[in-house]
Design brief:
Elements lengths: L3 E3 H18 L3 E6 L4 E6 L5 H21 L7 E4 L4 E7 L4 E8 L4 H18 L16 E5 L19 E4 L3
Antiparallel strand pairs: 1-7, 2-3, 2-6, 4-5, 5-6, 7-8
């Protein structure tokens, strides 16, 4: 997947994650793609985000296949509850997943409610996202997800054809 996000779309993503964080009070909320590549995150935890999202994407992919086997179109969310820490996966689009990690002090019901609302905010914000990489922001340079480099560092034309992972500003 090669996702291109304009600067305004990245701001909308950050706003949605910040809103979810303020409402549900999770330890961390992360937007990732279907391969588990981190697009953006809000909050911290004592774990490696990339590892958590890679495994979360695998769990979510397995639940989608389970839904298909059971005759469902898909399960749009998955909850794994632990004694001290829980994790909630909410589908944003076919290729994007919202991962919310929270402790026993957060309300599971509120996490589910606000994660669903945040996913809808993200869907609306990303409705104009184009694939493959292009320039969805008109005169604004797009942000291209890339595997290496620092976030938002100016790239080159070949950046637009790179594999996804880290948001990088492309010069187009």
């Amino acid at each position: 997947m090669n996702l291109t996000l304009a600067e305004g779309e990245m701001h909308a993503v950050r706003r949605a994650l910040a809103w979810l964080s303020s409402q549900a009070e999770p330890d961390s909320c992360i937007l990732c793609d279907s391969a588990g590549n981190v697009i953006e995150r809000e909050g911290q935890g004592p774990w490696e985000s990339a590892l958590v999202t890679a495994l979360a994407a695998g769990v979510y992919g397995a639940s989608r296949e389970l839904a298909r086997i059971l005759g469902q179109e898909e399960f749009d969310s998955v909850l794994n509850q632990g004694e001290k820490t829980s994790i909630f996966f909410q589908s944003v689009t076919e290729d994007l997943l919202l991962v919310t990690v929270f402790s026993e002090t957060a309300s599971t019901g509120l996490v589910k409610l606000y994660a669903a609302q945040a996913a809808e905010m993200l869907r609306r914000a990303l409705a104009g996202t184009r694939q493959p990489a292009g320039n969805p922001g008109g005169s604004l340079p797009p942000l291209v997800l890339k595997n290496d480099g620092d976030m938002f560092r100016a790239g080159t034309q070949e950046t637009q054809h790179a594999e996804p992972c880290r948001a990088r500003q492309a010069v187009g």
